[in-house]
Design brief:
The strands form 3 sheets. A 6-stranded mixed sheet has the order 4-3-5-9-10-11, sandwiched between helices. A 3-stranded antiparallel sheet has the order 6-7-8. Strands 1-2 form a two-stranded antiparallel sheet. Strand 3, helix 2 and strand 4 form a beta-alpha-beta unit. Helix 2 packs parallel to helix 6 and helix 6 crosses helix 7. It is α/β, with parallel strands linked by helices and 253 residues long. The chain has 8 helices and 11 strands. It is globular.
């Protein structure tokens, strides 16, 4: 829907919904109700960034530009001491157990890694980390913050985190949607594999915008939809083809 419009045969855009509106999606009406709780600037803030630059040998290729993504986050986050980093590698694997503990307290979580969607068992869809697969079921079971906690935004800069099943259009439990079940009120995901070179561009513009006031607080997440819109607009302004910018979508309000 967010990419609806009039296009030329070579993929050029003549008139699109993107030019007039900021789009968001939801899997259930409950997603909208949960997003209506006011967010205070004084709520405690923490951000967790998980990246896998070397990929997963035998399962997923390297993502060297995730290092650039992390550099952009470091540059834009107002309080560096509020950033918790998990950088996976073959020598030092990321700990899924520690990550799940950090998810419970995080206001913003950024995943720069590969994702894998299971159409047969959505609960087994996962983010691929060097310590193993972090499944939807584990995120819901072990990474769920308590009601009223400061958990706000999940940024899944990974492949296919918002891919559904065309044979089951009423089933909305994608990787991105699962993060809302786990307590996040705003989620960014991708509908299909993205170009590694595009990910840092989107992350740079996005985090620059939501942290533009120089204050790190959960309230920054309320601007996620507009932040992503501006980031995708940057991709379009650089002449990226339709297939490059369409995958990025926002869930929530």
């Amino acid at each position: 829907m967010h990419a609806a419009g009039i296009y030329t045969h070579d993929g050029g855009a003549e008139n699109t919904l993107f030019d007039y509106a900021i789009s968001s999606y939801c899997s259930t009406p409950q997603d909208l109700l949960g997003s209506l709780r006011p967010v205070s600037e004084t709520d405690s803030f923490a951000m967790v960034a998980i990246i896998e630059p070397e990929g997963i040998p035998g399962r997923a290729g390297p993502l060297p530009n995730t290092i650039t993504e992390l550099a952009h986050i470091r540059a834009h986050i107002p309080h560096k001491d509020k950033l918790i980093e998990h950088i996976g590698s073959q020598k030092t694997s990321s700990s899924t157990t520690k990550i799940l503990d950090d998810l419970k307290q995080a206001s913003i979580v950024h995943f720069g890694c590969h994702g894998q969607q299971s159409q047969h068992n959505p609960l087994e869809s996962c983010l691929l980390l060097s310590d193993g697969a972090l499944t939807i079921s584990r995120i819901i079971r072990e990474g769920n913050g308590k009601p009223g906690d400061t958990v706000r935004l999940a940024y899944l800069n990974a492949c296919q985190t918002a891919t559904g099943d065309e044979k089951r259009p009423d089933e909305g439990l994608t990787l991105a949607a699962s993060m809302m079940f786990a307590g996040f009120k705003s989620v960014i995901g991708t509908m299909w594999s993205i170009h590694d070179a595009d990910a840092p561009v989107v992350a740079d513009v996005f985090y620059r915008y939501i942290f533009r006031n120089g204050t790190g607080s959960p309230a920054a997440a309320k601007d996620a939809a507009k932040g992503l819109h501006l980031a995708v607009a940057e991709l379009r302004s650089r002449g990226r083809p339709l297939r490059n910018w369409v995958p990025f979508i926002h869930f929530g309000v």
